[in-house]
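In the laboratory, one determines a bound structure by crystallizing the protein with its ligand and collecting diffraction data. In a computational setting the workflow is compressed into a single prediction: the sequence and the ligand go in, and a structural description comes out. We illustrate the idea with FE2/S2 (inorganic) cluster.
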Amino acid sequence: MAISISLTVNGSPVTADVQAHTLLVHFIRDTLRLTGTHVGCDTAQCGACTVHMNGRAVKACNVLAVQADGANITTIEGLAAASDGALHPMQAAFRECHGLQCGFCTPGMVMSAVALVAQTPDASADDIRRQLDGNLCRCTGYHNIVKAVLQGAAAMKQSAEQSAALEPAAPAAIR
Ligand code: FES
Ligand code: FES
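The predicted complex, in structure-token form:
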């Protein structure tokens, strides 16, 4: 029996009928055709399917689509600036630091890294290695991934500081 769900995906409202057993990752890839979210294992081990659900990184093969009813989902396609398509600072850092080879793990790695830095802006290399241990990479040996996350974290911090500086000052109190 199909169940109707409504959620927000990359800023756009989505309503669809899904089966009770449909995994979020299959809904994202097969129904929404957002194929940047990869399937490596389907058993919550590799992290290739990582997306953000209400601001937290989740393995989309470990979540039923019906559990995402009402949620705010961001996939790798939603990370670049909606206005001009510019790469997110973390994506740019992966490119600059050669944090990928075949690229299969990269969308999940980037989504996990962005969530990690949002939660721990000053994460050390050791923190990054520990916290990304749910994301597997068969190619890189991880060194450049850690470098990329450190560089991406610094760029995210700088961009947050610039945005804060551009915000209008609070109006002075009227006496
Ligand atoms: Fe989800 Fe591997 S496909 S963790
Ligand atoms: Fe190939 Fe990570 S770059 S699996």
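The domain at 89-164 is CATH 1.10.150.120 (DNA polymerase; domain 1). Keep in mind that any predicted model is a hypothesis to be tested, not a measurement.
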